[in-house]
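Q: Joint fold for the lines below.
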Amino acid sequence: MPSSIDALVERLARNMAQRISRRSFIGGVGALLFGAAGMPLLPVARGESTTPARPDAATDPGDPQACEYWRHCAIDGFLCGCCGGSGQSCPPGTEHSAVTWVGTCHNPGDGRDYIISYNDCCGKSACGRCLCSRHEDDKPLYVPFRSNDYNWCPGSKVGIAYHCTVARIVGVAK
Amino acid sequence: MAHGSGMNRTRRAWARAALALMACTCGARGWAQLPAEPPAVEQLPSKPTPHWVWVNDTSFFAYPDGRAFLVDGDSGKMLGMLSTGFSFNGVLVPKAGGVIYSPEIYFSRGTRGTRTDVVTIYDATRLEPVGEIEIPPKRASILPMAGAQALTDDERFLLIYNFTPAQSVTVVDMRSRKFVGEIEAAGCALVYPTGPRSFFSICGDGALLVTTLTDAGTLARHVRTAAFIDVVKDPVTEKGVRWRDTWLFASFEGVLHPLRATAAGVEAEPTWPLFTQQELAQHWRTGGLNHLAVHGGSGRLFSIVHQGGPETREELGEEVWVYDVASRKKAQTIAMRNKVGSIQVSQDDHPLLFACAMEANRLDIYDVTSGRYLRTVEPLGQTPALLVTP
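A: Joint structure:
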């Protein structure tokens, strides 16, 4: 069951994702980061919630184990769907990273752009399967929350051992 | 006598037979018997040649098992290796010689348990650890790049970029071999030295955070510059390289941004294009993981290029284009035998170009003067990502 902090962060994330455009989001991240060193306020939810059911194939087309799947537009890592997890859930025995980077991907199923949270699953060595590296709107390390070159396991309880990455929908980018 | 003579003949016959048998069984092989060999361990020469290269392998498929391979570019021979722990970035080779520095991460149970971050000091000839400095367990775990760690110009202080995701810089005194402290760098990333007591970081809004250290390695002052890039329109990659007092950064769209260190801080110099309009129309772009290198003596900038779309900044390249930095002109094209993501160039008068990619476990070596491919060292590691020359 999510803690109150989890719920708060989740709500903030959804509100932010629904309120702001992709462009203003990127611009705002820099300002957000400046002075936000000690307390990461991120447009993502914390882990440990139950696995959401995946929408039907008509509205969420493609294979979550394929690098070409629309949600993977800015992913860089091993796809958790190939590692015992799914496109949205971590494999058994790993921990969902608390913080992460986000991308904005176009869903050909409904024609909308979605904010995608690329959470790493942590606590075991690399899965090593289905490596996928795509860089749509990916930014350098100095824009951390748009950068997929970080290992995002720091901040998790299990340390920085990186296993694989999921691609969760946070909300629609308006 | 007759009996005696018969005995002698018999003895001589036996003696001849014995000699013949010995010659048959021991013969040439017996006399050339190999000597017993005592246990031995190789040791490297005290001074590296300019054509040595450290191939830093982050072992992405076995993250706890980072490695640094030392290769002689002239012979293609692997000279030795360091075992460098979890999420390895790369070694640092001080010009003073004698030692190799390696920021490393370890867990008490391999991938779990207590995390310990250290700077390991290796003897440069025996490749054995001879010292260790414990630092806060905060070093950024990233795809390897030079900007994650650097020595100040006098090699006194080692600077290490932290990301927890709070951003800061660890300062280590390599003279006393002690951790000095941590300097906050909220909103800014990586470390680019500009002098014996100064470095800058790049911030999320396109500005620079210029840090000056005291002689003790603590923070003397922070100065934040105006933004030198538009991060949304055309950011630079964080893979800048240094030529003399100037750092050179390439933008996603192929604009070179020189940042010159001055007494007052860091100044953004006029930018210049890496590609002509015609080349841009042909979709030439910079790309790769560690895609730039500089040859200090000639002032030549090496840049991995490929033909691709706007979101292909980490795509491997088929060519390396060489620019004369002073005249801002392209001077040479070196065709790659294999697609390449990371390059480095030796700093002598007959330089070698080293090239690798995380996608392939090999090292390609080229002669810069002729642009000729020389040799490939393979297999070599697992995911080689960052090349460091002495």
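Q: Anything notable?
A: Residues 44-388 of chain B form a domain with the Methylamine Dehydrogenase; Chain H fold (CATH 2.130.10.10). Chain B touches chain A through 49 residues (CB under 8 Å).
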